[in-house]
Design a protein that fits this description.
With about 180 residues, this protein is mainly alpha-helical. It has one domain: Four Helix Bundle (Hemerythrin (Met), subunit A) (Up-down Bundle). The protein has nine helices and two strands. It has a two-stranded antiparallel sheet. Strand 1 and strand 2 form a beta hairpin. Helix 1 packs parallel to helix 9. The relative contact order is 0.19. The mean pLDDT is about 95.
């Protein structure tokens, strides 16, 4: 197996987990907090996709699908490429209303498709290429470092969303 295929498999498994968490949930489920200051399932999965979109936008095509394909409009948000959920306050988390499960899934799939296309064609030298890091303006980051950080972040948030689902819906989902 080539390393590119390994990364693609990691991201596809992430996507499968994302879909499993959403399976059978209602819009109320997506936007319900298990505690007053907690993140919702919808926010966690939106943030996961926004983070991936930002990463791939930064390293691959210089523009996020959030703005390029106007996904921000479907989420009733401004076209701010920095609106990824990073450092959102409790009020900002509460202010994100996921329009519906399908829109969240469609955005996730669009971003994942771009990510896989990028990774399949990435060279080893490309992993070491430095680019402007939009999270920390004025700094440069290696592509490989950013991808690995994104994988870590995405898996944590999908796991958190699965945990919140268990808190809200109880055991029994996904055969557990």
């Amino acid at each position: 197996m080539k390393w590119q295929q390994l990364l693609v498999d990691i991201y596809r498994r992430l996507s499968t987990g994302f879909e499993e968490v959403l399976d059978g949930l209602t819009l109320d489920d997506l936007n319900r907090r298990p505690a007053p200051d907690a993140n919702t399932i919808g926010w966690l999965l939106w943030h996961t996709t926004r983070s991936l979109d930002r990463t791939v936008g930064d390293v691959m095509y210089g523009e996020q699908l959030w703005t390029k394909e106007e996904w921000h409009k479907k989420f009733n948000r401004l076209p701010d490429p920095n609106d990824t959920g990073y450092r959102h306050s409790v009020e900002e988390v509460a202010g994100l209303d996921i329009p519906d499960v399908q829109t969240l899934l469609d955005y996730h799939h669009a971003v994942m498709e771009q990510s896989v296309k990028y990774i399949i064609n990435l060279s080893e030298d490309g992993l070491d290429r430095k680019f402007d890091n939009s999270i920390y303006p004025g700094t440069m980051t290696a592509v490989g470092v950013r991808i690995m950080g994104n994988i870590n972040d995405c898996y944590q948030h999908v796991g958190q969303a699965a945990y919140v689902r268990g808190l809200l819906k109880g055991q029994g989902w996904l055969g557990r």
